[in-house]
Amino acid sequence: MRLPFFVYGTLRPGEHNHDLFLRGRTSSEEPGLLPGAVLYDGPGYPYAVEEDGGTVTGEIVTALPEAYGELLAALDRLEDCVPGDPRSLYERVAREVTAADGGTVRAWVYVAAPAVAARLRARGKLIEGGDWLARS
What is d(CA 110, CA 63) in angstroms, rounded to the nearest whole number? Predict the structure, then answer.
């Protein structure tokens, strides 16, 4: 599936990984929201953890068709996401995200892997409001 990506941390415009990974590889970037998740500090980068009642702020990023495969592989490496590997920090999952116009879009989202999510729920630092750029 060639889905857009929902990015919520260091891949957002103005953050250091945006230029390294996304500049020149996208056809569009627009504000979006991920319902059913909360945000935790990594530290230095965030983790989205699926949880009812929360919302995470980010961007919906559509890759250029010719850059899609390379970008997907690069983001999996960046997020330490190896499908099926329990040592991965993140899992890439398809989720419905809300676009700025109120419509929904199915997108890839990197969420905390189960072991990481359990650790964060037990003793992580929650980012109130779910917006990495507005954290204190």
Answer: 16
What percent of the chain lies above the pLDDT cut of 70?
A: 99
pLDDT of res. 63 = 97
Q: pTM for this structure?
A: 0.95
Of 68, 61, 67, the residue nearest 17 (C-alpha) = 61
- For residue 68, is it within any domain? yes
Region of residue 107 (phi > 0: left; psi between -120 and 50: alpha; otherwise: beta) = beta
88 within 8 A of 50, measured Cβ to Cβ: no
What is the domain range of residue 77? 5-126
pLDDT, tens only, 47-85? 999 999 999 999 999 999 999 999 999 999 999 999 889
Number of domains in the chain: 1
For residues 1-21, one letter each, b for 16 or more C-beta atoms within 10 angstroms of the residue's C-beta and e for the rest, the string is eebbbbbbbbbbeebebbeeb
- β-bridge mates for residue 126, sequence order: 40
Are the beta carbons of 27 and 64 closer than 8 angstroms?
Answer: yes
| Residue 52 covered by a domain | yes
**How many residues in the chain?**
136
